[in-house]
Amino acid sequence: MARICRPRLTGSCRMLLDRPRLADLQALDVDLTIIGGGPVGLVSALAARAAGARVLLLESGRMDRDPAIQSQSDDTIDTPDTHHAGPLTTSRRLGGAGHLWGGRCVPFDPIDFRGRPWLAGCTEDWPVTAADLAPYLAPALDYLGAGEPLLEDPLPAPLNTRLDADTAFTAHRLERWTADPRIERRHMAQLRADRDLYVALGCSVCSAKHTKDRITHLDVWTEAEGRAAALPVGQVILAAGGVASTRFLLALQANHPALFGGAQGPLGRFYMGHVNGQIADITFEDAALQDAFCYYTDAAGSYIRRRITPSEQTQQDHQLSNVAFWPVVPEISDARHRSGPLSAVFLGLSMPWLGPRLIAQAIRLKHIGPPPYRRLPHLRNLLTDPVGTLGFVPAFIWQRYGARTRVPGFFLRNPAQRYGLEFHAEHLPNATSRITLDLTRRDRTGLPHARVDFRFTQDDAAPILRAHEALEDWLKRRGLGRLSYRYGSEVPAKGIFEEAKHGNHQIGTARMGHDASDGVVDRWGTCFDLRNLHIASTAVLRSSSQANPTLAAVQLALRTVAHLQQTGALSGQETPHG
Known about the structure:
By secondary structure, this protein is of the alpha/beta class. It is globular and about 65 Å long. The two termini are 17 Å apart.
């Protein structure tokens, strides 16, 4: 299949195109068109360029937030108690979810890719293994600016000896953090200067035309013209985010009902995020273990932090979902902590003109809760703890907003050695947790809005309760600490459900499968039905792991691009195959 060839743009029209007209796009000579300019789409574009392809990236947003464009993600949320509204989970501008993402990079574990008969929805192997993704870990971290692929760091010798005697859990595993989650800034020089990488802003893809097994044209709405028209394409990567990518595919299916397994197929189903929160506090018996959970930098200057995780054997023995734990500061909204620094953080986040500029809105609301806010007790804390406040606030502001590598958060040690115990656990695949189309509402491009029905079940909660019990046993056996439950000695599951709300991690709704009845894409990320359409998104993940999904999605995207290069698809020589 030959590459689509047209006259190439010259002069100032090259590279970063703000609000181009359709004729500008039709004049390009490209091998690959990418839909979506978030972290995964940008990395896909950069990797394709490194492979020698000419690339056009279409981004609906522009450099800055535009309310009219952002309204295209104003989807219908049928379950607002469990799923955040679209503006809190989607950012339509160059950099996409990087404007909302904290920057945590954690790889999926080998057990995530294997069938686990004790977990609902996870009984079958993935079509890929952890070993298949491993070659793409280092380049993924590099593209994201998260340093070297160092994923474990033993504790100091005395502690390490005690923990090695009982491997039910480990505190050696690391999470890594990007220097700046807005990776478009990291790569802006190339985005502006690369003569064969075109980034078209203000261009929304609202539909597509296709033959029996390939897309021939994308219908692109341009802000410059306020209308949609057909753009011929060769290879296409859909990287518009989990909900947006699924919405686009569902719209194609609505016009051609047999696509993607039909109405009863996997498309739109198995919508997952994560189950996270705090139902217990942890009190450390060993000050050295407390100190081990502070943020620190590796030799390359990247921030890292330890997590407490169960071994594979522990997961199997106790029938656990995959989960990670780490200590956090006491709830900042409760002024009874009497900490000036914590109250300073609360006051900053509670200011409507300041808080949303500091962290993503969904994370902000999780920390401070809903208004009204009682600020007077927090002001008293500032006055009674001036030394602690003055020692913390300027240093943190510099490390967070002034330093070249920003600190991703804060962890303040306290003499009582008692902290909230954050858990971050799998949300299990459930076919009734899903995305459909709301055919009564369309955005300004004519694309129907998504309708979200996002569900947690007892199957999600029960393994998390068992994980806390197993962790508590391990802490006591090794003399490391103890747990104090916030919801009574029986730890009712309602505590987990009171904490559970998501939508930031949009996983599973265009899952990778063994065949077209089992998934939307094959092991290379290529759609079973449309062989020149490839999906680079968290939506292709079959399960959610204990890990944030961005790193795994970037690894899979790099693998997809490498496959397209190896099969000749990027140069138009042949159609990729599974």
